[in-house]
Specification:
Number of strands of chain B: 0
Shape of chain B: elongated
Helix content of chain B: 55-70%
Radius of gyration of chain B: 19 Å
Oligomer: heterodimer
Number of domains of chain A: 2
Helix content of chain A: 55-70%
Number of helices of chain A: 22
CATH architecture of chain B: Orthogonal Bundle
Number of domains of chain B: 1
CATH class of chain B: Mainly Alpha
Strand order of the largest sheet of chain A: 1-2
Largest sheet of chain B: none
């Protein structure tokens, strides 16, 4: 299996090259089947790699000599292969969802969309699997660039190009900051491999400004990808305008890749005695996570553009992931892993339902769609179930992950309950208005800074009269996946094993450099549903339902106090760049904070 | 080893960020992003520099006979150039499309996505 690990990245890359080259001559079904097959092959490989492992592959067999070397390593530990498997499976469902989706992908080139999706998959899988910092940067930029292209896929329309541009500027700036950090780290350690660099830092044992600067710069790019406040401005703009299948991937896995990268780089490189003290990392991630979760939840509640609403809920949940990873306790990390799995399914299903609304009614505006979707009962039920999953209703995987993270969170438990209740409540409110026609019609408030959802173009050639059953099936499957995360004990056990290996600084270096394989996590105790966890999950689901009921009647007046916060999201590229620069300052201040 | 190249790299990065933040034209902003990226080239090459070192090409010198600069960072810088070219080309294509759809490349005039 070791030798096959690179194929997880290579198969989609080759498939993309084939589709880009021969796509002009392919009929559309052939191109889409090829795309699905490549993605599925990669998913199968990732699942097979997940079953064994950990796998370490030195490309070209350039192994390090005495701990030094210029070879490039792919490290397929449980976490990396798990993320690659999640990504690949989601890509398969997305390609199935996008089957016959766009009227005519660029005229005469049927392979363009599947090729881009496969490239995106290759970038994300590569990022999850690489054990080399510079390669991580290259894969980061690959998924970034493909992400911009996919966001602006419908180039003939005004909004998508604008969102893609904001996405491109902020992410590329973050990527360059990361590269500066990697160069500084190379200057100190002379190594680009994460494990080697970590060992060199430990051997040097000095904790100085150069290491701190490189840490802050590397983290900047990863947090931009993770959409942590104040690096998050690109995300709602990109998600609101990207084609629905792309939104499912952006929210479901790409943003989580940033969270993963930040934690992975810290653990493997900086967690030793020569790096950054654990309390500094903890403080930085807790504060950023808190800010991100609260900002995301507050703005999520304000939205009427359904995709933008879901985008802000992704921001809020990313904040919870960051806060849950801050302590790097294996138990809390297990919770975050399960939360990410459950969230990916629920969020992708919600986007899939929103895409169905867009194609049926030609808009995604909560107020304009008021009561119009009464006939789509099945989609409405799926949408509401997705909202409850976001709120953390047991036994969804989101609820299990949230419960496990809460047990380690202390006073932050309140944050988890409130934030998941508000984001779930916003989705339920939208569901009640759109699918049931509940509450009075809202009048348009012309003065408010907001994005309406009635200027989005449907993505099929004509409004679909009956929903293609494939779309609804995909949404139902995704929700079932999210449910399975909370019901299958084997997943929780695997996540616990992965979390123990993930948080082990010395163990990672030993696996990569010395080839010692720790026993694959079977011996670790793993947590399962507890009474408190179920209770807190039910509480936040109940709160969400209550909030939605009040919100439908307009009894939660929030427009006035949220207006300043909303005005900050100006859609102006220059503002976003300035916020990113300010974020670097904030991150430095958090890491350098005295008294830690 | 002089600190000047490191200061220069930091300066270039900040100038580029300032240019993007205050830009009145998206083509100019894309140019500023490229300027920001140039700081990574300067930093990478500064990291690998050795005093008195020659280029790491061993066709006419005996390996080990004289110091050479670090070839790894040069490889990184080359890869970085490729990444930069891709990003710049894609962003410029998007700007062309924005100019077609909105009739302007002034970021102040683009305000459809807000709140």
């Amino acid at each position: 299996m070791d030798r096959l690990l690179p194929l997880i990245v290579v198969v989609p890359l080759l498939g993309a090259a084939l589709l880009a080259g021969a796509g002009r001559r392919m009929p559309r079904p052939v191109a889409e089947t090829t795309g699905c097959l490549c993605a599925a092959a990669s998913a199968g490989l990732a699942v097979a790699a997940l079953a064994g492992g950990p796998h370490v592959v030195w490309s070209g067999d350039w192994r390090p000599v005495d701990g030094h070397g210029v070879g490039i390593v792919l490290t397929g530990d449980r976490t990396g292969t798990g993320l690659a498997a999640l990504t690949s499976l989601l890509v398969v469902t997305v390609l199935a969802y996008a089957w016959r989706y766009f009227d005519e992908p660029p005229r005469g080139h049927a392979g363009a969309f599947p090729a881009l999706i496969l490239l995106f998959q290759a970038g994300m899988c590569g990022f999850a699997l690489t054990g080399d910092l510079f390669n991580a940067f290259v894969f980061f930029e690959l998924m970034g660039v493909v992400g911009y292209a996919l966001t602006g896929y419908r180039v003939e329309e005004a909004r998508p190009v604008q969102g893609a541009l904001a996405f491109g500027f902020v992410n590329s700036l973050g990527g360059y900051a990361t590269l500066l950090g990697i160069a500084l780290l190379y200057a100190r350690t002379g190594e680009l491999g994460m494990a080697q660099a970590g060992r060199e830092l430990d051997a040097a044992g000095r904790h100085d400004a150069l290491v701190l600067a490189s840490f802050v710069l590397i983290l900047t790019g990863l947090l931009v990808k993770a959409a942590a406040v104040p690096f998050h401005f690109w995300l709602p703009d990109a998600h609101a305008v990207a084609p629905t299948p792309v939104c499912m991937l952006l929210s479901g896995v790409m943003v989580e890749m940033g969270v993963y990268g930040a934690a992975r780089v810290y653990v493997t490189v900086f967690a030793g005695p020569g790096g950054v003290p654990a309390e500094d990392f903890r403080r930085a991630l807790t504060v950023l996570g808190l800010l991100t979760a609260l900002t995301g939840a507050a703005l999520c509640w304000q939205q009427r553009h359904l995709k933008r609403l879901l985008a802000f809920s992704t921001v809020a949940h990313t904040g919870l992931f960051l806060a849950g990873l801050a302590a790097l306790e294996p138990e809390g990390v297990t919770g975050v892993f399960l939360y990410v799995l459950g969230h990916a399914g629920a969020k992708a299903a919600l986007f899939a339902c929103t895409g169905a609304l867009l194609d049926r009614y030609g808009g995604v505006d909560e107020h304009r769609l008021h009561g119009r979707a009464r006939e789509m009962r099945g989609v409405g039920a799926l949408y509401a179930a997705g909202g409850l999953a976001l709120a953390g209703l047991p036994p969804f995987g989101t609820a299990l992950g949230k419960a496990l993270a809460e047990e380690q969170a202390g006073w932050l438990t309140a944050l988890y309950v409130v934030v998941s209740a508000v984001t779930g409540g916003a989705v339920l409110r939208a569901a009640a208005r759109v699918f049931l026609g509940a509450g009075p019609r809202e009048e348009d408030d012309c003065g408010a800074p907001e994005t309406t959802g009635d200027q989005e173009e449907p993505e099929t050639d004509r409004r679909v009269r009956r929903l293609p059953s494939l779309m609804a099936t995909v949404a139902a499957l995704l929700l079932a996946g999210s449910l399975a995360v909370g019901l299958v004990p084997a997943l929780a056990r695997a996540a616990a094993g992965a979390a123990h290996a993930f948080t082990d600084h010395a163990g990672y270096a030993a696996t990569v450099l010395d080839g010692t394989h720790a026993a694959p996590g079977a011996g670790h105790p793993y947590a399962w549903w507890s009474l408190t966890g179920v209770g807190l999950g039910l509480l936040s689901a109940l709160l969400a339902t209550g909030l939605a009921a009040l919100g439908v009647r307009g009894a939660v007046p929030a427009r006035r106090w949220a207006a300043p916060l909303r005005r900050l999201h100006s859609g102006h590229v220059g503002d976003y760049v300035a916020w990113t620069a300010a974020g670097i300052g904030l991150l430095s201040a958090l890491v350098l904070w005295p008294g830690g | 080893m002089s600190v000047l190249p490191y200061l220069v790299a930091g300066w270039i990065f900040l100038v580029g960020v300032y240019g993007m933040a205050t830009s009145r034209d998206l083509v100019h902003a894309v140019g500023c992003l490229s300027v920001t990226q140039s700081s990574t080239y300067v930093l990478l090459l500064a990291v690998g520099y050795r005093k008195g070192g020659s280029a790491p090409v061993f066709s006419d010198i005996e390996p080990g006979s004289r110091p050479v600069v670090d070839p790894v960072v040069q490889a990184l810088a080359l890869t970085d150039v490729v990444v930069g070219a891709t990003v710049t080309a894609l962003l410029l294509a998007l700007v062309v499309q924005i100019a077609k759809r909105h009739g302007t490349t002034d970021p102040d005039a683009l305000s459809e996505l807000k709140g």
